[in-house]
Amino acid sequence: MNPSTPADYQLEKRAIRRAFDQAASSYEASAVLQDQVGQQLIERLDLVKLEPQWILDLGSGTGLQSRRLNRRYPKARLLAVDLAVGMLQQARLRKSWRQRQYFCQGDAEHLPLATGSMDLLFANMSIQWCNDLDRVLCEFARVLRPGGLLMFSTLGPDTLSELRQSFARLDDQPHVIPFMDMHDIGDALVRQGYEMPVLDVEHFQLTYAALEDLLRDLRSIGATNASVNRPRGLLTPRRLQILRDAYEQFRKDGYLPATYEVVYGHAWSSGPRPEIREDGAVTLPYPQMRRHIK
After folding, report:
1. Residue 242: which region, alpha, beta or left (left: phi > 0; alpha: psi -120 to 50)?
2. H helix or E strand, kind and range, residue 138
């Protein structure tokens, strides 16, 4: 469970996978923020000295950042892992024949990779789709070699605050993910034994002429409500009008804003953490390797 998430809140992985599969063909045309954040995350690699042999692009989507990482490290092999097969199919179509990329469907909380197999783990705007932050960071530490680099971005609690407040006028059901606080992420990195973690936050604001444009943008990148306890069915015309009216309070200079709080972070792996069982015994992760999908 993520530290700042309500105890009864869970994401349904099947719903996430289905939404991203459906959005695969429209993703790159609409993922303006994800693209910009990914570029900035790659630029932060200028601050570190690293010549990776294997790169893991976790939550690779259609391969926007995979292609950039390949250009930056042309000698490296890159494994693109995503929950949605549709995204991986688009990534395969878009890559250059020169780029050494491999594709594997997988869940960040249960990576089908060998222990200590990656030099750089790059996760752009993906870990917010996981239920258990500690589990994810433990898996990242497992697949990274000791001294490997974790570089990530995710969304903080101010994200879509206007939409969250507007939905609150309808009911008390979960409509927007309770995103993780930067300090909770930092604490989790320390718990999982990462070295020299560095985190910072940047705020972005996208603007829309109408609420429907924002909702359409979210659907076209796969960012739909995937809570296990989410309300079922479409918004009725009456409820949609209530939502429109509630969002109008935020209109400024003729446009509706959508705020995004982006958390950037990087840290160095000290190797997989030993697991302490209830009986006091200590176990180490056993290497699990499945064939990469070429």
Report:
1. alpha
2. helix 133-143
